[in-house]
User: What shape does this take?
Amino acid sequence: MRASRLLSILLLLQTRGRMTAQELADNLEVSVRTIYRDVESLHASGVPLYGDAGPAGGYQLLDGYRTRLTGLTTSEAESLFLAGLPGPAADLGLGGVVAAAQLKLMAALPAPLRDRAGRLQERFHLDAPGWYHDPDPTPHLAAVADAVWNQNRLRVRYRRWTAPQEVTRTIEPYGVVLKGGRWYVVARSSKHIRTYRVSQIQRLTTLDEHFDRPDDFVLAEHWQSYLDEFEARLRAGEAVVRFSPSAVERLPDMMSQATVRAVAAGTRQESGWVEAVIPMESVGHAAGLLLRFGAEVEVLGPPELRNRMAETAVALARLYSTSDG
Assistant: This one.
């Protein structure tokens, strides 16, 4: 375990340059004291590693030094063939690049690892999109990704859900994210960082204007913050709902994870139905989601949601009435 950590320290410094003891500790999930001991061991073994004190200090390898410890374990070699999704790579225009990289990696592996990696590809397939959604048409995705990489501003004609539905924006794209089979671009527009669904971009022009990406912007951290805020908006209200056993089984495919967790913590009744308090964004939004379950759910509150469900049921009964009158 310690030998693996020492190698990880070398590879981190080799790829990232100067790093503080705290940064190394955070990356390797150990204490700063452990990093100090590891650095001393690397010094003793002759690794040209030096450190500077002060606010701008940190550890750094001597210029030009590169470790030759490039061996892969069996598990590491296997995992590399699960790291890239061929579908998303093709969407980004990188399908051929990924295939070529995997071919080169396969050729470089020793025969036993090559056989195991080949069997892994034959036995595991990663499919990102959800069951009930067709893939988003994203004709502008490659251009968006290229602008992200080259830090070029974009002028887009974007279709949104609120009026006015079509707007023109000049954006600075910071990164792209694949979530549930749908592509999003995180970009600055005016003074705000916003998230745009790539399939809703109607027209796109790449501008001959370069922008500087903030050094402190971390895409993964920003996206997690965005998801947290999104879930908080979904919890703006609450509803008390009874779910049949059949509805409970279908929940993971039809409702948010927040709702699934709420129902899992609900009260199971003798009939097998589960009563739970679930998050609700709005009456209209909740009614639309719950009506998909038909008579397998019963809304107990709030009254306005229960009334909306009842009004819709009456309207459906009238629509499907078999009477001729």
